[in-house]
Amino acid sequence: MFRTGFPVLKPLSALEPSASSGIGKGTAVEFAGLGAHLALTGRNQENLQTTAKACVEAGTPQDKILLVTGDICDEEVRKNLVDQTVQKFGRIDVLLLEHAKSTHALGRAGKVAEVAKTIAFLASSDASFITGAQVPVDGGRHAMCPR
């Protein structure tokens, strides 16, 4: 069942290219709890199945989850993923890409949920007036390490 009191992503179609673990898995589960249709990919089929199960438990029906096993660095896998996602859902509303966690100004590593909830907010209608913005979810690293 979908959570109440949170932004709803339904019926957004979200493509998560690293859903078999870490932030990718956490974000997929977060989006599932908000009602999104999901296209998930990862190199480890067993972990991808575990993510899909968690997404079903969070609220996305099994028939609204597409799984594509493969390495997103492979051009054929990327093309196949996009083609299958558009074929199944008719469109891609959100493409998720993330970077690894590391310890920064707050003195601790970021939590998967902290990143996933930020991504979900930005993909929701609650962020409808935010466009073209970079939102660092890095524990203050951007402020401590200017480039």
TrEMBL record:
Database matches in Pfam families: adh_short, adh_short_C2
Gene3D superfamilies in the cross-refs: NAD(P)-binding Rossmann-like Domain
PANTHER family: EG:BACR7A4.14 PROTEIN-RELATED (PTHR43975:SF2), ZGC:101858 (PTHR43975)
Protein name (database record): DHRS4 protein
